[in-house]
């Protein structure tokens, strides 16, 4: 499901306008993005949690030449699936 499909699903399920559903989804995603920018953890019971993982500097390799390169420290978003969702998907 992509963003447009989520908006459409919300509009149909809750019998609201497409524009209103889009506003709601945009608000939710904006709040989640702002929290992650602030390095805050997001936990949605039954779904999972979003955290920012920090990686230290390390020596990597250029895939074309094989030469070692220094990879700078970085922060990346990470999603950890919740127990309930995992059990539903696995069966």
Automatic annotation (TrEMBL):
Superkingdom assignment: Bacteria
- Please tell me whether the keyword DNA-binding is annotated for this protein: yes
Signal sequence region: none
This protein's GO cellular component annotations are:
cytosol
- InterPro entries, from UniProt? Hist_DNA-bd, IHF-like_DNA-bd_dom_sf
Looking up Pfam families in the UniProt record yields: Bac_DNA_binding
Record-level Gene Ontology MF annotations: DNA binding; structural constituent of chromatin
Assigned keywords, A-Z: DNA-binding
Claim: DNA-binding is one of the keywords in the record: yes
Tell me which family the UniProt entry assigns to this protein. Belongs to the bacterial histone-like protein family.
Under what name is this protein listed?
Histone family protein DNA-binding protein
The source organism is Pelobacter propionicus (strain DSM 2379 / NBRC 103807 / OttBd1)
